[in-house]
Amino acid sequence: MAVLLHRLGHSAYRHRKLVLGIWLVVLAALITCVGVFGGKLDDRFTVPGTESQRALDTLGRTLPEASGVGAAIVFTAPEGHRVTEAPYKAAIAGVEAAAAKAPQVSAVMGPRATGAVSADRTTAIVQVQYSVQRAEVDASSLDAIERTAEAAEQHGLKTFVGGSAFGSNGVHIGPSEIIGVAIALLVLVVTFGSLLAAGMALLPALLGVAVGLAGLLALAPAVSISSTAVTLALMLGLAVGIDYVLFILSRHRQQLARGTDPQESMALANGTAGSAVVFAGSTVIIALAALSVIGIPFLTTMGLGAAGAVLIAVLAAVTLLPAIAGFAGARLTPKPGGKAAQRATDPDGSTGRATLGARWVKAAVAKPLLTVLAVVGILTALALPVADLRLALPDNGSAPVSSTERKAYDVVGDKFGPGFNGPLLVLTETDDGSGARAGAQAAEKLKDLKGVKAVLPPQPTRDPAQSVIQIIPETGPDSARTDRLVHDIRTAAPGIHETTGATVAVTGTTAVNIDVSNRLSDSLLPFVAIVVGLSLILLTMVFRSLVIPFKAAAGFLLSVAASLGTVVALFQWGWLADLFGLAHTGPVVSFLPIILIGVLFGLAMDYEVFLVSGMREEWVHTGEARRSVVDGARHSVRVVTAAALIMFTVFAGFFPLDDALIKPIAFALAVGVAIDAFAVRMTLVPAVLALAGRHAWWLPAWLDRVLPDLDVEGTRLREAPEEAPKEPVRAG
Q1: Which range, of 378-392, 655-669, 679-693, averages the lowest pLDDT?
Q2: Coil, strand, or helix at residue 452?
Q3: How far, in Å, CA of 9 to CA of 267, rounded?
Q4: pTM of the entire predicted model
Q5: How far, in Å, CA of 523 to CA of 519, rounded?
Q6: Cβ-contact 696, 689 below 8 angstroms
Q7: Under a CB-based contact definition with an 8 Å cutoff, are residues 548 and 618 in contact?
Q8: Residue 12: pLDDT above 80?
Q9: What's the pLDDT score for residue 355?
Q10: What pLDDT does 724 receive?
Q11: What angle do CA 57, 60, 61 make, to 5 degrees?
């Protein structure tokens, strides 16, 4: 791998105009595709093969208005009045009639038909139904619904528009993300001590992100891609893109400071640091692509989209960076006498100018057992809340407090009960045409279940053998009791079939979301086993050791557990929720743990490779176990620190977004990176290796012969560097 990347670095450096031109042409072509074809984003959560999804698909054929997305117009009378008064009834009826004429609307049901009037008669609901899914509802149609609702306000009613048709749509890049990139640039300037080098690191990363996002959006007309998938791809592509370029460019500048020819230096950096980048990127890609085995379409596209963004980031680092470095030439060389030059020419710290990171590592190995106990104890304490982890998908109750859908959600929950925000649909079906009779009998049976607040009269479909029953639970859509009610209905289904002759299937948005969460919960432990097993195999091949892989896997699990613990404490328990400005607390987003595991796994392997490879080099060179840990860390700890800070700021920049899916993911990734980089890789790892001593680098001879040598450190390249044609050093 190292030799191949060395050649690639030489070629990209020499043919820099061609390489840059190819990237720009690809970007322009993808942007053109997005502009011409412009597909919509699809935020549906589906689980093929589950009872809820099969029933929903059936309703899509026999009662489309029940299977599509819905909106709700909530009316509240002025203080001291009731919505049942004649002027308000007329105003609501007028809105109901106008809403029926809005584009794409398939059915409108007012309070006279549904009885949706609160017990105190102060609030009423008009339900608007579409026969299509949310991604297919035009913005103009939703605007028309909002305009019809505003007409009632002229008569003194307060109106709020909500329902599943409303919510977050698309990716919104705001000041917080820009600030995150600005802080990343500042970290790069401090790390390199050069504005030119910082810009050179940022440019390939940004161009790679642009190509990755444009490519993902170009697929939207053919593939269902959610707005969350696009945001995750942006977040990951930006974070790893900057980090990967940082690793290679740092090595390049070190070699320039030692007098290496610029072209050869770039090729060597590509062959050594670039090998580690390719390895680290591959682990992230494999972990994210593995999300497709879970069998949930939206999670598959999310994982593959993010994996594609990481792949583009790797390609940009090993091809675009050498090309752009070719334009800068020798100008990237650190100034003689500067700190960057001193660090490069004094790698062993003999002048006593040890960095803060190097001193930190030295302190960690001074009393290794105490360090291990302290770190493990703190991370275990942070992980304790995970025992209470509950998973669910967010609804409009997680929307920003100022949004109309959140106001509608809160009013409905307060006046009608939380279950009205997440009704269940029960599809009954017989072998003959007695759907109405069997549906009525099934409805009577369902009323007796615990947790049911109301059962509405069965509604016929276009198939006379079917009927649809709407059940209002006592609890909200994200409640564990609602989950239990869905389970109880399915448990009672055989008995209902025996007495009524009708098969019973629970569906609707709430049931589908519950099935998604349950599928993800069931997949969590197998996914962890796959990721941990993969890490053991890969690290054993890279470091030719047994201790290092098991130590890395244990550290990774500690990082994940501690990160999830902080997520549970903040987002589920509500600790410090006011300080962080959270509008809603409740169950954790159901796919967050799997996303966190997949992403953090790759990043943990990234930092592990860059830190431990230097230690292994020292061990091979000196044979002194503890000294190799300290001296080996000195070479890379500053770069890893900068990389972790950049990754943290980029992820944290997405936290202020008012998106119930992205906010907890951004928080989990930011905290996870900080914990894994600083507590595990830079503190726990050196301490464990110091405790293990010579045993840390032991591998049975038979296993050493069987395992392939990945040569991530570029040992072969240093032993026999490839000769390449040189060209005169010039700036551009």
Answers
A1: 655-669
A2: strand
A3: 4
A4: 0.85
A5: 6
A6: yes
A7: no
A8: yes
A9: 65
A10: 45
A11: 105
